[in-house]
Fold this sequence. Notes:
By secondary structure, this protein is an alpha/beta fold. It contains four helices and nine strands; from the N terminus they run αβββαβββββααβ.
Amino acid sequence: MNRRSGWLGISGVLAALLGCSDISAPLRDDLYEWRLFVPAAVGSGTDTLSFHWPRSALPVRVWVEDTVGLPADFDRAITVWKSVYLYREFDARRVSDSVGADVIVRGSGLPASQFSRIRLHSALRPECSGATDLDISDDHTEFRTPVRIFIAPLASPEDPGLSQCLALTSIHELGHAIGIFRHSPNATDIMFANPVVDLPSAFDRGTAEVLYHVPPTLRLVRP
């Protein structure tokens, strides 16, 4: 498929999406709902939250705590999500300093969620668990960095299932950070609430591609 025909196909999908006002309405057969519905305060912004990293903010800077093999897992997770995009709509790199990072990843447990943040719980496997905190302004107009990802090992290092759990949970949580705010209803997708697959499915890929071609409702704000 050449570039022109591929773009025409995406354009047709976008026209259908932009003409759809009901968040729960079906979008198309090869993706799922990625936007997050959060009731807005009276007189404030939209109740439908959608975000993707603008090109001016790429590459997204990701700092990862050096524990339980997470740096290598997130190097792989970044490579996996970058491979979804044909035209480099998303890019990221791991940085050595947490100061100024857009995404901060820690592997030492899940602290209490801070006020004004939206926590996306996921990966509730017996070997590990994960969560992603999104800092959204009260009027639902700003997406504030850093995004904070927490991955908690629950099994002993000798458990053969721990490394697999950490690897797939890293991909899952980074999926939230790139803009997939909802969990997939399909157990065969990496963005299922309790993922069991190792890589994004066709549904994950279709969702990730489309969300980067739909205008976001949240504006990126860096400190």
